[in-house]
Fold:
Amino acid sequence: MIKTRLKYTVALPLILVLGIPALLISVLYDLDSTFTSKEAGVFVCILLLVIWIFMLIELRDKLIKIDFGNNEIKIRRYLGLGKEERYPIKILTGFQTSEVSGCTNLYLIKGKVRIAKSSSFYHSNFEEILQFSKNCLTDLGNVNTTITSEVKDALQKKQTN
Structure:
């Protein structure tokens, strides 16, 4: 059985998810004295909100714990604190890989839906996870992705069951 291990790089999204609401509240509380115009203050607030939403999506999609067993894969989102999802290995279609901004991503596929992502940026044992996937799942090849396509994929509601 292989379990994903998160790297120290998970600290950045966590700091942002926890810190941005406090920063946003302080900016809104003192909007008149912080900015010369209300438009600039509103722009900063919207920017902070967009960054916060993006970090929540990172927590949901990439900062996950995956347990690879002999017959099933268990996925827990939100740093492993979310609800456990179980998938028998035999019902998975396979896996895909991609390179985005210098990091390798592994996508577990059920049907046509990506049910989980593992990233070399967040998982310290990524190579072990990739090797296990190669041994137990069908390699569906490399996918050309960009940051834009990653964001689009993250925003889509997934139906996996």
